[in-house]
Amino acid sequence: MSKVGIREVAKLAGVSTGTVSRILNDHPSVTNELRARVTAIIKDLGYTPDPSARSMRGKVSRLIGIVIPDLTNPFFAELVQSAEQAAANHGYNIIVMTSFDHAAKEADRIKQLTSRKVDGIMLVPSNDFHTLKLPKGLPIVVVDRLMPGYSGIAADHRNGVRLGVEHLLQLGHRRIGFISGPGHSVPANDRLRGYLDAIEQARERADGTRMAGPPLIAEAAFDYESGRSAGNYLLARARNERPTAIFASSDQQAIGCMRAAHDLGIPIPAALSILGFDGIPLASMTTPRLTTVKQPIQDIAAAAVAVLLNKQTAPELDNPILFACEILKGETTAPPQPD
Amino acid sequence: MSKVGIREVAKLAGVSTGTVSRILNDHPSVTNELRARVTAIIKDLGYTPDPSARSMRGKVSRLIGIVIPDLTNPFFAELVQSAEQAAANHGYNIIVMTSFDHAAKEADRIKQLTSRKVDGIMLVPSNDFHTLKLPKGLPIVVVDRLMPGYSGIAADHRNGVRLGVEHLLQLGHRRIGFISGPGHSVPANDRLRGYLDAIEQARERADGTRMAGPPLIAEAAFDYESGRSAGNYLLARARNERPTAIFASSDQQAIGCMRAAHDLGIPIPAALSILGFDGIPLASMTTPRLTTVKQPIQDIAAAAVAVLLNKQTAPELDNPILFACEILKGETTAPPQPD
DNA sequence: TTGTAAGCGTTATCAG
DNA sequence: CTGATAACGCTTACAA
To answer: Which residue ranges does the record assign to the HTH lacI-type domain (chains A, B) (predicted)?
Structure first.
């Protein structure tokens, strides 16, 4: 059943193993006639090349490594799943590893992948990732959390957030709170910048309109519980002082914030609009459904795989490939009530 | 940097490559003294054995394949993550694949894994999985969705559900609705059986107490939307007729059901208790927090890996290893109001 | 207990 | 364009 190797094929086809190998690897210099005949025999015999032997002799393992901080995070889960699909389409498989946002573990995992001879690594760097030396010669594409000095692929967080703020502004909101991500996280800072951009811009064009003053930014981790307490913080003031809309840096934060509002007796979206970021499936499962800025996860994954397989030219240093985000309208945003 | 092979080690240690190999593989017949010396040199040189060569020559790849229906499902995501950790502890890595509950894709993935020479496969079979021939000689452990005729590892769904029903009974509920999973799914049927067990048992010991009559079971897919419509179905009757508690077969169903109740103006848990099953992180993120029966995912994953690595004897045919579930108390269950 | 040497299944080089 | 043939880095009889 499984004893069939390249030699059997060669013998049965009356050619040499070399020829079979060339056919297997789409080497151009083989007669079409021959190629057809041998291919038929291959299929007939049910022969499959042995990946281990291939990756030992050749320099290709058809294996891609993915290192992410946390598979439990729906965003990363979808990223991995999309990458798996994209890779499978090219005959590649995926080895996943979780770093738990721990730099040492991450370094170890990358070393493992290197020794596995993976053909490339897709990396979402851990947050305390600072001085890791990436192995040279091995294609690595940094995804989502872009690192200065490395090429990468990600959603355009900054413009995505700007888009979201515009949406709130157009609804008539003027006191727009922002729950920021952890300060040491690159995408968190990008999102914050997007918020500041949009607010600044609104201020400039708002001749008479006042953009309200009190602190409207709260820093928090990306998770649910942090979003909740940040929400509490932002909402803990008189009605005509507190924000009429809150933009959270992640859907999980947004959902936590919804809960905070609920506990304070503030109806959504009547008295408070909430906008999330990410577009995870969970967003459409809340009551009311969360309006959110969706990242094109599949596109990101596909692009990353394409780059690793040299199907697409890699992004240049400090000049990442960015994908546009779009607003996914739910039921948590509406025009503000008059004070 | 990377040119160091077993020969370098051997030369530098003044031994043969064979000896080094034996040391690498913990072969018993090597002097401790020698072992220590060579090990030191290995570490010193930063030598790492080439996995491709190893898996080609030997019969071990230190690779485990995992095939699941959907990585986006938080339950499976956690399963994979836990397995990855467990495997890493033994020097093993994980190749993940998604079948999308599609039998053909699943078969293809399994074949790929076989040719990769993985040392074992952890499989959550797709639901339209009927007549797949599993490759012989390759350890496969079926997880979560047990298939009759195969050995497997899973949570004890039946007893878990029974536990949940007991909880509701103790709170005083007598009309307990049940949202079942899709009829063709094995765990769904196990859960349904658990419900029937508990109800039956309650009926027997309930001398005078009446266990209410009207249809209290609704079949639905495991997802959110299905849970919602099943909830609507069960709740669409007069207050003194409808269930005072609903047990859903998945957390996602339960959350959908919460939304249905909400839309009908039925307060939770005041007028309706809701109990979920799975214990995904999402369960603690709803408002109010969902009470649920938690599956010990990490234990399941660890056991599956242990079996694949022969660290633990495999479960016998038709005699699966089952792990107990436990109730995770949230805020959606309370004593029923009088009619 | 340790050394020697023969492959494992492919790919790549080099002739023909 | 195709056929021999030598590696690739390691494990494992078999010998010593």
So the answer is: 4-58
